[in-house]
Amino acid sequence: MGLGALSMLLPSPVSNASAALIDLDPPLARILRYKLLIHEEPNARSKNSGFFKYDDVISLPKLIHVENIYNKKVGWYQISPTEYIEAAWVQPVFDRLNPVPIDPLPEGGTLGEITVPKVLVYLKPNVRNIHRTFYYENNFWVLKLEYDEYGRPWYELWDDLNGLSYYVPARTVHLTKPEEVTPLSPDVAPDAKRIELDLYKQEIRAFEYERLVFRTLCSTGIRDGLTPVGRWMTHRKRPCRRMVNEPANPNVYDLPGVPWVSYITLFGVAFHGAFWHSNWGNVMSNGCINMKADDAKWIYRWTTPAVPFDQYFHTEETGTRVDVMTGYGGF
Asked: What is the distance between the alpha carbons of residues 209 and 192, in angstroms, rounded to a whole number?
């Protein structure tokens, strides 16, 4: 099944950011809740008959949409005629291994993406699992390729928060090619591009010369004000980031490899991919704009400034205009 076909199965059907690739891998699903109940009906109040555990990987079930008590369509995966799980806590994934390059990596490193549902992380090649896991669609800056005593290849991944390095088997990482991140619509004048973020609908809309070219659901701040209303711009970007809560933040989180980060404020609010939930269309974040990874990549490539392929971080004085609106007719 192709990535474009897979995107049609996800709980945010308004997205227009699909890829037209042919892929014979069966789609899988990673469980995102420590105890995801299996219900007898697509209804959270229905009787449950069991549960999946966090990080369980199963075949991707059939997706259906039903209306909840607020007349809002929500996604459920149907495992059997009498077994359902909430789509909000399931990450569609694939299990893909990659060839190991013969040529050395570029000096200074290059971007890589995890292409398996989950992979254990090591302090050195095949030495000391550090009880951390990286996940499908995580992005990391790959510093170099090394081999362990058995001749098995490993990639050294840079931790952009503490400056340390970690290792994963090289075949679990796809090295990003320059053509995969080339700017989208580069012929459109920068001031003719504009994004609307509708907090009421939890929706992103992108325009070129006032023509709608992209539309998708997202998840913004769980409380009013966390995602600030107003006019902003995508003035700095990075293809990946380890995101950790501020000390005063009661919501404790540590998220390595967050992909396709496009900041809109100086204090860190950004568009980025999220691999810890699929609850699109509902508030979920500490202020950032959570999106499916493919959608976040589209924003990253379409907005200005364009990030040079060999750079981990890029900033300029101006960027694409972003209007964050309440949805009630204005800012």
From this structure: 5
Structure tokens at 296: 């976040």
- CB contact at 8 A, 221 and 286: yes
CA 269 – CA 287 distance, rounded (Å): 6
Report the predicted TM-score, pTM, of the whole model to 2 decimal places: 0.89
Q: What domains appear along the chain, each with residue ranges and CATH number?
A: 3-93 (2.30.30), 110-180 (2.30.30.40), 190-325 (2.40.440.10)
Write out pLDDT tens, residues 211-236.
999 999 999 999 988 999 999 999 99
Distance CA 265, CA 263 (A): 6
